[in-house]
Design a protein that fits this description.
The complex is a heterodimer of chains A (about 450) and B (about 475). With about 450 residues, chain A is an alpha+beta fold. Chain A has nine helices and 25 strands. Chain B has two domains: about 220 residues, 2-Layer Sandwich (PmbA/TldD fold), CATH 3.30.2290; about 230 residues, no CATH class. In chain B, the strands form four sheets. In chain B, strands 1, 2, 3, 4, 5, 6, 7 and 8 form an eight-stranded mixed sheet that branches. In chain B, strands 12-11-10-15-22-21 form a six-stranded mixed sheet. Strand 3 of chain A pairs parallel with strand 4 of chain B.
Chain lengths: ~450, ~475
């Protein structure tokens, strides 16, 4: 994986209909009253197949383009901006009228000035799905060839295959294009016995199709849904450590990392600070979080952000201390920092918790939640658990009908990160983490 | 502003394309969408005038010939319509392997109807300049109230919807607008930072902005109380739900469970409970774009089906579900006008619109007085449905403790309400005679396909697990 970069002359055009970027650029270039401008275009080709109980219910195909123009009006130390969409049906007069309206609006805004990125051109090609319907068929074949007997079924399966071509051009000589494919498989594994049934939700994303990885993920979910059927609420209150899987860890660490966004810091809304501990009185593993532009498993991967700033990998938390901020050009400039791009993906260092150590005392291993509830300001972590396993030595008991509730600071200070890495969506990091002090109710 | 001139200009091309595709398909429906939206923000550090999040302009074509449904989304349909029709047919052609898996779905009924719909709107009368000045003045007003306010954001988000639907027998167009106004404060007291928000909404922008001016005191007072809020002691409590939380229960506990595309997928336990008791006998619930005027009110849905008002629960008995064109075709029922898309780029699913419990006969003060120790819960944060297993998780921004029948000054935050849907709905013991719809919500199907929804109702007295 990884981006392939080549330089090309400014303003080559691919696949645009109606008002092309070039035509819009030419209109904006000679317009009066505009200091700067930016044109951000996304063309998306998609093929989508929707299955209901193994049968094709709907087939979709799309070819759509979104073009957003932002105009900037500078007056001394103040800068105003306003944006508008250009639609495929718009003609030159429509664009001029929208531009004039946006210029008037931008003139009303008196934000602190900053400079747009300049003089950078690049093209990143991470490939398209050459035959998306064939990939959809391969995915369906792979999934429906899983063992769906003895009560197991996939009541719904939705396959989405996208190729995005993203382009940003500005008045300061930035011209960047990225083509990227992404796929999402949403599945509902279900288990039925004696007329009663339960289900779980699975969302699997990737940019490169791997039959083995898909099979492994779906097989795991099918096993879990069978366990959910047999799971019961505990008879007595459980007082054990809680183990969260990578999906929930991803939510937790993204929420914490957002506290280091330049915008959050500039607006003084950050609960954690650079140079200060994220984890106080920690007795667990140190936390190191690095944000980045892309991961092979992420559908959000990007080479550059909306301003055209190339994504720069940034470690925001190192050894449980706030290290660096991240974000786009506006707030970076306000804070006197270098922009990193609005980083969509995350890598977290693994810890020291081995399987052998994990097994030394009982714990509740969460497999599926309705959604992890986090409130950093109120120091809260919790949520409803749809399936968990109470692991006590060799004995593994599926549990449901419980909720988690605790102080986030206590949970973080006791956090032990597994020594194994797992990649899922926009997260690559410890496969699981163990926490003490979370109430199981 | 009136109905989109762009869509009007494409009306003839839509008819021609419909006719051309009709040579290949038994059913063809084309939806044209032209949605204009704006977002005006002002906070302490930046102001912005930009496009709103729901702007869209394009077309989606739905086709059927007795097997699966096919859809094609594109930005414009002008030009060589014959070539476009050929391209569309080719793009939805399946391989032999997938074709062998096609469902056999009956062709939808295409009842003849030609009609135009419009609602009063001031979308074009209100300028960006007026809205920016409003947002800046209100921001300054909020900031001036308390030195503990670190930042205040005021956002005004109006949008105007034009949609044109053309099929062989139907031609419908609609125009309406809606505005949401939001005020948010970041508040620090001691070491604690909290956020508090207020929202107002109306089909008229100026009405929504005026109402927000009356909420500043409430917003600042709430921030002050939230800064002193403590975590709740987990347990099972008697609870009074404010309309926002009542609506969240209606939406999450049962609304998703009666979306009939989930019936087709055997994903909803509710399918087996039609005609049976699912809630306390004092419980009544409805959904419909035509049921009330709120953020999810329209005249026809994205399948060209007229807006409905569906009675879901009557006196505790599950009466009916809601459906889109595809699920109704599969189930052999009449679609209820609940086929909705995030945009023309996305698939239509069965979606809720305005979902609410109906008012009862109890006085709110009597309901509070009936509780020796419990909480009144306010303001939706988020929720998650589980229609197959009838589990529910709803998060309220805060709760106020009730002791000996009186609301105290003790705030708890956040509050997560969870448990079994039948137990929760069965525990409804009092329903207030008040009624409010909260028109500021968004809803996903699973974790995607976001559409605007409203929900609400009266206050309910329930017994539920809080954590």
């Amino acid at each position: 994986m990884g981006s392939r970069v080549r330089w090309r002359t400014c303003l080559e055009s691919e696949g645009e209909a109606g008002m092309t970027t070039e035509k819009i650029f030419d209109i904006l270039r000679v317009a009066e009253g505009i200091s700067d401008f930016r044109i951000y275009t996304t063309r998306t080709l998609s093929n989508e197949v929707f299955f209901v109980k193994g049968k094709v219910e709907t087939v979709r195909s799309t070819d759509t383009t979104s073009t957003q123009v932002t105009v900037f009006v500078r007056s001394g130390d103040v800068l105003g901006d306003a944006s508008f969409f250009v639609y495929s049906a718009d003609g030159e007069d429509d664009v001029k009228a929208k531009m004039e309206g946006a210029t008037r609006s931008a003139g009303l805004i008196r934000n602190k000035a900053y400079d747009l990125p300049s003089d950078e051109m690049a093209t990143y090609d991470n490939g398209a799905f050459d035959d998306p319907m064939q990939v959809a068929e391969d995915i369906a074949k792979e999934i429906f060839s899983l063992d769906l007997s003895d009560g197991l079924s996939l009541n719904a399966l939705e396959v989405f295959l996208y190729t995005d071509t993203i382009r940003v051009v500005n008045s300061r000589g930035v011209s960047k294009t990225e083509r990227r494919r992404r796929a999402m498989v949403e599945a509902i594994p279900t288990f039925t016995e004696n007329g009663e049934s339960v289900e779980l939700y699975e969302c699997y994303t990737f940019s490169t199709f791997s039959r083995d990885a898909l099979r492994e993920e779906m097989a795991k979910k099918l096993a879990e849904v069978r366990d959910r059927f047999h799971a019961k609420a505990p008879v007595e209150k459980l007082c054990v450590d809680v183990v969260l899987p990578s999906g929930e860890l991803s939510e937790l660490f993204f929420e914490i990392a957002d506290q280091f966004a330049y915008g959050t810091i500039y607006n003084k809304q950050n609960a954690f600070s650079i140079g200060a501990p994220v984890v106080k009185d920690g007795t667990g593993d140190p936390l190191t979080v690095t944000l980045c532009g892309s991961l092979p498993t992420s559908a959000r991967s990007r080479a550059f952000d909306v301003d055209g700033v190339t994504m720069r990998e940034t470690t925001v938390i190192e050894n449980s201390m706030g290290k660096e901020g991240f974000g786009g050009v506006r707030y970076a400039s306000y804070l006197g920092k270098e922009p990193t791009g609005d980083l969509p993906c995350m890598k977290v260092n693994v810890g020291t918790l081995t399987e052998a150590e994990l097994a030394t005392r009982p714990y509740l291993k969460v497999a599926s939640m309705s959604g992890l509830q986090l409130d950093i300001y109120n120091d809260y972590i919790g949520g409803e658990v749809r399936l968990a396993y109470l692991v006590d030595g060799e004995r593994v008991t599926p549990i449901t009908g419980i909720s988690l509730s605790g102080k986030l600071s206590d949970a973080l200070s006791s956090m032990r990160l597994s020594d194994t890495v797992y990649a899922e969506g926009s997260y690559e990091g410890p496969a699981l983490a163990r926490f003490s002090g979370i109430d199981i109710v | 502003m009136a109905f989109s001139s762009f869509l009007e200009a494409r009306r003839s091309a839509m008819r021609t394309l419909c006719q051309k595709l009709g040579e290949t398909f038994d059913y063809v429906g084309i939806l044209g969408a032209d949605v204009r939206s704006r977002a005006i923000h002002a906070n302490r550090s930046v102001c912005n005038i930009g496009e709103g999040s729901v702007s869209e302009c394009g077309f989606v074509i739905k086709m059927h010939r007795g097997g699966a449904f096919y859809e094609y989304s594109l930005d414009d349909i002008e030009g060589d319509i014959v070539a476009l029709a050929q391209k569309i047919v080719a793009s939805v052609t399946l391989s032999a392997e997938l074709a062998a898996r096609e469902m056999k779905i009956p062709v939808p009924v295409d009842e003849p109807l030609v009609k135009s719909f419009a609602r009063e709107s001031d979308y074009d009368d209100v300028t960006n300049e007026e809205l920016l000045r409003y947002a800046e003045e209100l921001r300054d007003e909020i900031l001036s109230r308390d030195e503990n306010i670190l930042n205040a954001t005021v956002a005004v988000m109006p949008y105007a919807v034009s949609k044109l639907f053309v099929s062989k027998n139907r031609e419908l167009d609609q125009f309406y607008s809606w505005t949401n106004v939001m005020a948010l404060v970041i508040y620090r007291e001691g070491e604690k930072i909290v956020s508090a928000r207020e929202g107002t909404y109306s089909h008229l922008t100026r009405e929504a902005t005026e109402i927000m001016k009356t909420k500043v005191d409430i917003l600042v007072d709430k921030a002050h109380h939230l800064a002193k809020a403590k975590p709740i002691v987990p347990g099972v409590y008697d609870v009074i739900t404010a309309p926002s939380i009542t609506g969240l229960i209606a939406h999450e506990a049962f609304g998703h469970g009666v979306e009939m595309d989930q019936f087709v997928k055997e994903r909803a336990l509710a399918r087996e409970y039609v005609g049976r008791a699912v809630a306390s006998p004092i419980c009544n619930m409805r959904d419909g774009a035509g049921a009330v005027l709120s953020s999810a009110s329209y005249f026809f849905d994205d399948d060209g089906v007229l807006a409905g008002d569906t009675e879901i629960i009557r006196d505790g008995i599950l009466v009916a579900g809601i459906s889109d064109l595809v699920s109704a075709s599969e189930l052999g029922t009449t679609p209820t006008g609940n086929g909705r898309r995030e945009s023309y780029k996305r698939k239509a699913y069965t979606r809720m619109t305005n979902t609410f419990f109906c008012p009862g006969t109890d006085k709110l003060e009597d309901m509070i007085a009936s509780i020796s120790h419990g909480y009144m819960l306010f303001e939706t944060n988020n929720g998650m449905e589980d229609p197959k297993n009838w589990q529910i998780q709803c998060t309220a921004e805060y709760g106020i403790e009730i002791v000996d029948g009186k609301l105290t000054d003790n705030y708890v935050s956040p509050v997560v309400m969870s448990g079994s849907v039948p137990e929760l709905l069965g525990s409804i013991s009092m329903v207030s005679d008040t009624f409010e719809i909260i028109g500021a919500g968004g809803c996903g199907k699973g974790y995607k396909e976001w559409v605007r929804v409203s929900d609400g109702g009266p206050a309910l007295k329930v017994r539920v697990k809080l954590a």
